[in-house]
Amino acid sequence: MRYSALRVIKEALTGHKGWEPVWRSPEPKKHYDVIIVGGGGHGLATAHYLANQYGINNVAVLEKGWIGGGNVGRNTTIIRSNYLLPENEPFYEYSMKLWEGLEQDTNYNSMVSQRGILNLYHSDGQRDAFVRRGNGMLMAGSDAEILDQDGVRELYPFLDFENARFPIKGGLLHKRGGTVRHDAVAWGYARGADSKGVDIIQNCEVTGFDIKDGVCTGVKTTKGDIGANKIAVCVAGSSSRVMAQAGMNLPIESQVLQAFVTEGLKPVLPGVVTFGAGHFYVSQSDKGGLVFGGDLDGYNSYAQRGNLPVVEDVCEGGIAIMPAIGRVKLLRSWGGIMDMSMDGSPFIDRTHIKGLYFNGGWCYGGFKATPASGMCYAHLLATDTPHEFAKGFKLDRFRRGGMIDEKGVGAQPNLH
Ligand SMILES: Cc1cc2nc3c(=O)[nH]c(=O)nc-3n(C[C@H](O)[C@H](O)[C@H](O)COP(=O)(O)OP(=O)(O)OC[C@H]3O[C@@H](n4cnc5c(N)ncnc54)[C@H](O)[C@@H]3O)c2cc1C
């Protein structure tokens, strides 16, 4: 079914009886060309691009829970292309371009909103670092603008410019950054993949791999054994647990990250703002709630919930730049499991086991990467060669000393 304004009008006039389920609920077949383990944003995007760009549609996506129940439906919805390093920024700029055409591509309203991101700076040293980053962004074809204090004041007059512990001196503005309705991304990709024949199988947990003589030929699941020529793991926060079933020990730790939503307010925040002297980022959802987050909880966990000390820390960060939000009621908070890699950068690579592929290590920044990750993983699966924008995301980069350490903080995942 194609969605359009005409279709909405027709359904409205006929009692909304014609809408069809967005994807089917098939039983698994015995064998597929490709099995994707994990029905998050990245797994579904991979399935969509495999079927729609590479013509491979004998594909199953196996999801242990439900579509959108993982990080893709738990993040703070921010997309941006404002990285520094040459292995990262072209990839995120490619992702931004795919976001810009996503709704037309999937014929689904994902509410892509390029409302701009402002990273505040609070010292001369930080300004210089942002100028450097901005130049890196421009060189990769992204947009970047340095604002002084007056420039920030014009956009966000209610920030604390007078009495702040860390006075706001200006900001790095990235106008094409913004937000996307996160679970609609999962639904849109699921619809795109399903329409080309991909089987999306929910409540189907992968519990093991069939590996013999160094070749992976299928998976064991709660719905029985399923064979495949290629198995593509894409399970974000569960990466280390799932790959351990194949005997692999990854340079990844799982940690909790929380997100928060306040009661609905009238429009107050036109774009995304981030605090430069602490860790706090905020936007306003279309329903009016302020959506924000901050640091990781700082310990290893597979629980999708966090703890109170970080709630306090995040709220302090918010009040430091926007004292007015101290009076707003917090409505909801939740946690997601982050696949924190040791250098803060991801992996899209083959493994040493033939037929087994891995995508993960997205840390707390993988939502913005969803389209490019899906396209690059699909390319790898279809051609067995890395996509030009994902060449650096190799599993052996620590052994080679080729870390992609965007923040230069070393092998400490809780600092990335
Ligand atoms: C609170 C929070 C805020 C965030 N904010 C941002 C942000 O603003 N911008 C940004 O770019 N990124 C953000 N992120 C990060 C981003 O959400 C993730 O990096 C990204 O969603 C991970 O990829 P995914 O969507 O494929 O993961 P998921 O949606 O977690 O998908 C993985 C799926 O694998 C499934 N799975 C696990 N084990 C198995 C198994 N054995 N068998 C079958 N299926 C299995 C899981 O159930 C899950 O559905 C945030 C994350 C959190 C938690």
Profile the largest sheet: 8 strands, mixed
CATH class of the largest domain: Alpha Beta
What is the CATH homologous superfamily assignment of the largest domain?
FAD/NAD(P)-binding domain
Task: Tell me the fraction of residues in β-strands, as a range.
Answer: 25-35%
Quick one: overall form? globular
Bound ligands, each once: flavin-adenine dinucleotide
Domain module tally: 2
Task: Give a count of the beta strands, DSSP E runs of length 2 or more.
Answer: 18
Number of helices: 10
Helicity range = 25-40%
Low-confidence stretches: none
Return Rg in Å.
21 Å
**Cα end-to-end separation:** 43 Å
Classify the fold: give the CATH topology of the largest domain: FAD/NAD(P)-binding domain
- Content-based structural category: alpha/beta
* Mean pLDDT across all amino acids: 96
**N-to-C series of helices and strands:** HEHEEHEHEHEEHEEEEHEEEEHEEEHH
* Second CATH tier, the architecture of the largest domain: 3-Layer(bba) Sandwich
What does this structure look like?
- This protein is of the alpha/beta class and 416 residues long.
- Helices cover 28% and strands 27% of the residues.
- Strands 1, 2, 8, 9, 10, 11, 17 and 18 form an eight-stranded mixed sheet that branches. Strands 5-6-4-13-14-15-12-16 form an eight-stranded mixed sheet.
- A hairpin with a 2-residue loop joins strand 10 and strand 11.
- Helix 2 packs parallel to helix 6, helix 2 (41-53) crosses helix 9 (370-383) and helix 3 crosses helix 9 (370-383).
- The radius of gyration is 21 Å and the shape is globular.
- 49% of the residues are buried.
- The structure holds flavin-adenine dinucleotide.
- Flavin-adenine dinucleotide binds at residues 37-43, 62-65, 69-72, 74-78, 205-206, 234-238, 242, 257-259, 293, 336, 362, 364-368.
- Flavin-adenine dinucleotide (FAD) binds next to helix 2 and strand 12.
